[in-house]
Design goal:
Organism: Polioptila caerulea
Keywords: Hydrolase, Membrane, Mitochondrion, Mitochondrion inner membrane, Protease
Helix content: 10-25%
Distance between the termini: 76 Å
CATH architecture: Ribbon
Number of helices: 3
Largest sheet: 7 strands, antiparallel
Number of strands: 9
Order of helices and strands: HEEHEEEEEHEE
Subcellular location: Mitochondrion inner membrane
CATH topology: Umud Fragment, subunit A
Number of domains: 1
Strand content: 25-35%
Strand order of the largest sheet: 1-2-9-3-4-7-8
InterPro entries: LexA/Signal_pep-like_sf, Mito_IMP1_subunit, Pept_S26A_signal_pept_1, Peptidase_S26
Oligomer: single chain
Radius of gyration: 20 Å
Protein name: Mitochondrial inner membrane protease subunit
CATH superfamily: Umud Fragment, subunit A
């Protein structure tokens, strides 16, 4: 009887570990659902919007200018941030705030991206902490799930003029 109970317990433990590994791989490599907070991506993403983030793009280096990404915060590694990719390595980017009279520019170093929130006046982004290493990117947001009246693919940046083409 004890042998039967131990057998069931070990089988249950084995299935739990297997399904836990499958779930981990799915969330780490395929994607997941993310609840966004804060005003930095308004009007594209509002506070408490729910989005789907796919993680394959970062593994295959398919992140492009204009994509919205989930990134480990350079200021606080325990938290994630949601920002738009403005520049990739080698791109010339405007590093000044919109209200600055004199505009300053810089080049994004190798292995880094330049990130900015769509709400330029209320966003802590690369203009504050500089270029972000590509390795901190967790995923690319591709779909807004909630609220239902705004369900679908995300719209283009309201700050398209900040994308510089040389």
């Amino acid at each position: 009887m004890l042998r039967h109970a131990l057998g069931k317990a070990f089988r249950f433990l084995g299935y739990t570990v297997q399904y836990g590994c499958i779930a981990h791989c799915a969330f780490e490599y395929l994607g997941g659902i993310v609840v966004c907070s804060g005003p930095s991506m308004e009007p594209t993403i509002q506070n408490s919007d729910i989005v789907f983030s796919e993680n394959l793009s970062r593994h295959f280096y398919c992140i492009r200018k204009g994509d919205i990404v989930i990134v480990k915060s350079p200021n606080d590694p325990k938290s994630n941030i949601c920002k738009r990719v403005i520049g990739l390595e080698g791109d010339k980017v405007c590093t000044s705030n919109p209200s600055d009279f004199l505009k300053s520019h810089s080049y994004v170093p190798k292995g880094h991206v330049w990130l900015e929130g769509d709400n330029l006046r209320n966003s802590t982004d690369s203009r504050c902490y500089g270029p972000v290493p590509y390795g901190l990117i967790r995923g690319r947001i591709c779909l807004k799930i909630w609220p239902l009246n705004d369900f679908g693919f995300l719209r283009a940046s309201p700050n398209g003029h900040r994308f510089l083409d040389d």
